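Feature request, filed as a ticket because there's no other form

It would be nice if the structure record came with a short human-readable summary line next to the tokens. Right now we just get the raw output. Example of a typical job, pasted below so the devs can see what we mean:
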Amino acid sequence: MNARLDHRAPLVFDTRELGRRPGALKRLSRSVVAPKDLGIEVIGVREGVTIELDLRLESVMEGVLVTGTARVPLTGECVRCLEPLERELEVDFQEMYSYPDADDRSREADTGDDAEEEDMLFLEADLFDLEPVLRDAVVLALPLQPVCREDCPGLCADCGARLADDPDHHHESADIRWAALQELAEAMRDGEKDNAPRERGDDSQEK
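Raw output as currently delivered:
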């Protein structure tokens, strides 16, 4: 069963006006405050920003079928150039909230699918909590590798400069193998200079 719900919570909804007559329908829109930790490491929804919800509540035999759309503002950073980015994400979701006595009926039916029964969400005093459904829908829709633009060139591997600001940016770099040979050649030249014979201009005087 769900933990006791607070009807004042922004993502808790009341279904009493809907009733239990199968086929009853109710539509509603609500602006809610985003809960914390709604996102992944590189992108997500800041706590406290406004989320726009459009919901369709339908009474069925087993409970209330909730179908909805959420529009959430995202903030994060580009994984290539590390610049901040903002965008809006729209996600759709659908979830069944079963009546409390549906759990008894499901046990009588003995479907044998324990995992499915554990995943069931229930109404509590005609209330349902949309947060776990919204959280799953948003997090699963987030890009794992967000970029500021599809062709973002990223950062220079040598100095960290943002390549989009300077498309001609580059560094002169020699192959390390050639660099080692060049150092060896310079060392050999220095050795040759040290070992070079001295001029014999005064030999006649010595004789």
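Something like this underneath would help us a lot:
The helical segments are 102-109, 114-118, 131-141, 176-195, 203-206.
The radius of gyration is 35 Å.
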